[in-house]
Amino acid sequence: MTQKERQERSRREILRAAMEEFGTQDYDAVTMDSICGNHGISKGMMYHYYPNKDALFLLCVQVTFQDLRDHIRSNVERLEERGGFEAIKAYFFLREQYFQGHPMEKHVFENALLRPPRHLREQIWTLRAPVRELNHQFIWQVVGRMPLREGLRPEAVMRYLDSVEYSLPHALRQYSAGGDLTDMHTLMEAVGELLDLVLYGVIRQE
Fold it and tell me: Is residue 85 in some structural domain?
């Protein structure tokens, strides 16, 4: 094994250990010592590649965003011809479907967006750019085909739907009231019902 191959293997081992720690615990509960101790990684090797916990957390965030983007991108083309509401519902479902199969990445995602360490917010915002741009491209295409309320600009709708992304995982858990969101049919129904409320509201206009 070459030195480069050994280095790549060491980085993979460290990433796997960090993802398991940050993917099951909140940021504040994880330490460099716990990552090393729980996964048999020497401190010398750890600090050779990563200077601190922040670098490891940001690495996990970056990998999560990249994997999520790749998952959405590989499936998004088949959604673009659907009607506005159905397209948006299917788009959000794609993301939740990814997280159903990647629970550790889901925990990292929620920590990064819902409970970000204050001193890392700007870096997390930058790392999220590829997912944010993909969201904007898709939503812009769909919103352009939707009958918007009079006076409502597409740009405002985009900002609104973008903000929903932050809270959707938590909102789904609350809305389902203990329902089994690991079941794809139940998850799809919950996503559809919640987005129906998000897009159309609850008060009948007189």
Answer: yes
